[in-house]
C-alpha cells in the first residue's frame, strides 16, 4: 500500500515559508484564535477574536485569512465560524480512552435515557483536571442542562468527574486537588479535605452524586466505567434537584456502566483475536 500524499494547505505552506521563530509565533497565535471559539462561538467578529486571543486586529485578520484558506474557519456574514473540516478532524481523534467508546456506549445511554424519564444522560472522560463530555442524550422535553459534547468542566465539581477520580490512583487525583477547585456554585466543594473524604465515600458506594455543585438547580448521579483495574469513563443522569430519584437513577447508571465495561472488554478481545 502506498502512502497517501497531501498537498500542503495555505497555513502549512505559509509556515514553511517563514523562519522557525516567526512561524512558531504565528501558529501559536492562530491556535489561540481557534481556541476562542470553544467558549464564545459559534460566530465571532475579528475584533472580538483579536481581543480574546490577545493579538492585534491586523494580525487576527491576517491569520484568519490563512485559516480560511486552509478551510479551518469560514465566513458567516461579517464574522467567522469554525468549519466542518475541524469537525472531521475532531471525530478522528484517538485519545487515551478505548477506540469506539462512544459507539459501544450509545445504546446503553439511550436505554438509560428512556428509563430515566427523559432526564439528561452523559458520557464523559477525565482529561487533565477536567471532564470532557463525549456524548449527551436528551430531547426537547428534557431538563435544560448547560452541557454540550466536546466541552469540559472542572472534574471536582461534577458527579462524572468525582466518579472517575474516586476510582483513580492518587497520582491522578493529586494534581486536581493541588490545582485548586473553582467555586462554580455556592454548593461546590472547594476544600481539599472535604473533597477527598467525598471521594472515599464514592469509592465505597461505587456511585457519585453532584448536588448542585456544578449548576444550581441540577443534581447529577454518576457511575464509573471500569475495565479490569482501570477506570475508563463515567456515565450519568442529570435533572432538576426537586425531581431526582437518586436511588433509582443510581441503579440505572451503575447498570449501564457495567454493560458498557463488558462490551468494551468483548470488543477488545475480538480485536486482539483479529475478528
- What does the main sheet amount to? 6 strands, antiparallel
Describe the strand arrangement of the main beta sheet, using strand numbers.
Answer: 5-4-3-8-7-6
Helix content: 40-55%
Structural class: alpha+beta
Got a strand count?
Answer: 8
What integer value in Å does the Rg equal? 21 Å
CATH topology of the largest domain: Beta-Lactamase
Q: How would you state the average pLDDT, rounded?
A: 85
Shape: globular
Based on the structure given, which CATH architecture of the largest domain is correct? 2-Layer Sandwich
Distance between the terminal alpha carbons, to the nearest Å? 22 Å
Order of helices and strands: HHHHEEHHEEEHHHEEEH
| Overall number of domains | 2
Task: Explain what this protein looks like in three dimensions.
The protein has 275 residues and is an alpha+beta fold. The chain folds into 2 domains: 10-90, Orthogonal Bundle (Arc Repressor Mutant, subunit A); 101-272, 2-Layer Sandwich (Beta-Lactamase), CATH 3.30.450. It has 10 helices and 8 strands. Strands 5-4-3-8-7-6 form a 6-stranded antiparallel sheet, with helices on both faces. β6 and β7 (218-227) form a beta hairpin. α2 (20-40) crosses α3, α6 (101-115) runs antiparallel to α10 (246-272) and α7 (159-166) packs across α9 (192-205). The two termini are 22 Å apart.
Amino acid at each position: 500500500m502506498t502512502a497517501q500524499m497531501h498537498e500542503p494547505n495555505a497555513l502549512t505552506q505559509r509556515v514553511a515559508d517563514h523562519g522557525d521563530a516567526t512561524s512558531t509565533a504565528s501558529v501559536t497565535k492562530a491556535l489561540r484564535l481557534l481556541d476562542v471559539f470553544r467558549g464564545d462561538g459559534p460566530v465571532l467578529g475579528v475584533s472580538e477574536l483579536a481581543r480574546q486571543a490577545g493579538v492585534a486586529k491586523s494580525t487576527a485578520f491576517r491569520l484568519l485569512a490563512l485559516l480560511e484558506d486552509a478551510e479551518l474557519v469560514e465566513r458567516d456574514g461579517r464574522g467567522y465560524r469554525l468549519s466542518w473540516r475541524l469537525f472531521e478532524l475532531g471525530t478522528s481523534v484517538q485519545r487515551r480512552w478505548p477506540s469506539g467508546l462512544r459507539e459501544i456506549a450509545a445504546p446503553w445511554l439511550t436505554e438509560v435515557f428512556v428509563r430515566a424519564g427523559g432526564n439528561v444522560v452523559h458520557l464523559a472522560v477525565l482529561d487533565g483536571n477536567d471532564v470532557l463530555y463525549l456524548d449527551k442524550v436528551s430531547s426537547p422535553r428534557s431538563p435544560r442542562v448547560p452541557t454540550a459534547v466536546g466541552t469540559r468542566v472542572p472534574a471536582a465539581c461534577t458527579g462524572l468527574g468525582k466518579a472517575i477520580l474516586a476510582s483513580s490512583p492518587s497520582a491522578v487525583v493529586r494534581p486536581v486537588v493541588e490545582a485548586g477547585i473553582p467555586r462554580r456554585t455556592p454548593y461546590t466543594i472547594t476544600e481539599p479535605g472535604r473533597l477527598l473524604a467525598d471521594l472515599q465515600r464514592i469509592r465505597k458506594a461505587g456511585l457519585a452524586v453532584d448536588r448542585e455543585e456544578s449548576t444550581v438547580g441540577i443534581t447529577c448521579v454518576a457511575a464509573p466505567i471500569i475495565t479490569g483495574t482501570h477506570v475508563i469513563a463515567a456515565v450519568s443522569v442529570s435533572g432538576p434537584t426537586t425531581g431526582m430519584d437518586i436511588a433509582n437513577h443510581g441503579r440505572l447508571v451503575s447498570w449501564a456502566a457495567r454493560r458498557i465495561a463488558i462490551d468494551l472488554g468483548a470488543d477488545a478481545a475480538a480485536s486482539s483475536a483479529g475478528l
